[in-house]
Write a structure and sequence with these properties.
A: 240 residues; mainly alpha; 2 domains; 13 helices; globular; B: 126 residues; 6 helices; transmembrane helix (chain B)
Chain lengths: 240, 126
């Protein structure tokens, strides 16, 4: 009853659902800050509380996304704000930019190809394959790129989250196991595969780890944006 | 408060220029152009890094909340998860580890050497 009343008034619905989203997210952030568990990711936590909540009050996704449009609109300026860490890492990038770009281009090409082909083989749905192949970049940019290529951005958002958690939880151990121990290499690998979630974990090891990880996360986002618009259509042609 | 408005102004200008760049050049999304332009303006000191840092860091710290509506789309995919949940996890897991291995291995091999050479040459003249 109350839900119908709220949904019938667009402004009230916008205010209520945006506030619920922000409040839940704040609560989740506070919990993570208190307990410091990586898997207690605020976004994952918020989604796992809000999904059952929407199902109980019988609001579908379209209604929810219309009412929280304001948060979606803020995504663009939020991406621009990432220019600050990019500026702060200029020094690091300037010294190794050729090598780093070459390594990241190779890594990104491999990961897009592998994810796309695996997804087409196992799931056979192009929009899911596009979403999964763009999962190794930071969420706001991954979502923007997926929408640009007509993939399913909600799958991208989720896949990015899971990739982030995998890399953050198991990445450092895996890299040490295969003999990759330097701060630069560990930083670049985790930053490009597990973006912000990985960087947040790695920065506890050393400032150098954190610096390279954030360089990788920004550079790989830019390079993925340049590579994916021609690589993905090329891969799609294989299945036509 | 003054710095908050200054930061919003700086970000808005860069986003507008980003939109223009996207219109003229395509290739990258407008927000990514905006991000690069913003970093460039900070480097050139056209916008003061000292003034924007605090507000900007606040934005970055809380930007995750803007991603929740996109992530909520998963509500439409319960069937997909039921049918292909394991396949999804396998794809994400394996491709993440391939990426970690490729980048980690290549960086360990190719990014370390120049530093060693540099420290040797720097030590030389002394």
């Amino acid at each position: 009853m109350l839900a119908t009343f709220i949904v019938n008034s667009p402004i009230l619905a916008s205010i209520v659902f945006t506030l619920i989203t922000i409040a839940t997210y704040q609560f989740a952030s506070a919990c993570q800050q208190k307990w410091q568990y990586i898997w207690l990711n605020p976004m994952l936590f918020t989604i796992s509380i809000l999904v059952p909540f929407l199902l109980v009050i019988d609001i579908n996704y379209q209604e929810y996304s219309q009412t929280t449009e304001i948060l979606n609109l803020l995504l663009e300026p939020a991406i621009v704000a990432l220019g600050l860490p990019l500026y702060q890492q200029f020094k690091q990038i300037r010294f190794y930019w050729r090598e780093m770009t070459a390594i990241l281009v190779l890594g990104i090409t491999v990961v897009i190809t592998v994810s796309f082909l695996l997804a087409m083989w196992l799931i056979k749905a192009p929009e899911i394959a596009i979403a999964l192949s763009l999962k190794s970049v930071t969420t706001p940019i991954g979502i923007t790129l997926t929408e640009q290529l007509f993939g399913d951005s909600s799958i991208t958002a989720f896949a990015i989250l899971i990739a982030g958690l995998f890399g953050a939880l198991l990445g450092p151990q895996w890299l040490s196991f295969i003999g990759v121990n330097s701060a630069k290499a560990q930083g670049l690998a985790i930053g490009s595969a597990s973006h912000v979630i990985g960087t947040a974990v790695l920065v506890r090891k050393s400032a150098e780890h954190g610096a390279y990880s954030s360089v990788a996360l920004i550079l790989s986002a830019i390079l993925t944006a340049l590579i994916s618009p021609w690589l993905i259509p090329l891969l799609q042609q294989l299945f036509n | 408060m003054k710095n908050v408005l200054y930061t919003i102004f700086a970000i808005s200008i860069c986003l507008m220029l980003g939109k223009l760049a996207n219109y003229l050049l395509a290739a990258l999304p407008a927000s990514l152009y905006g991000m690069i332009i913003y970093a460039l303006f900070l480097q050139l000191n056209w916008f003061s890094p000292d003034k924007i840092t605090k507000t900007n860091q606040w934005f970055i710290k809380h930007m995750g909340v803007c991603l929740v509506p996109a992530g909520m789309g998963i509500i439409n995919h319960f069937q997909l998860i039921q049918q292909h949940g394991i396949a999804l996890v396998v794809i994400i897991f394996s491709s993440t580890f391939i990426l970690l291995t490729v980048i980690g291995y290549l960086s360990e091999r190719y990014l370390i050497t120049p530093d060693n050479i540099k420290s040797k040459t720097m030590a030389g003249p002394r």
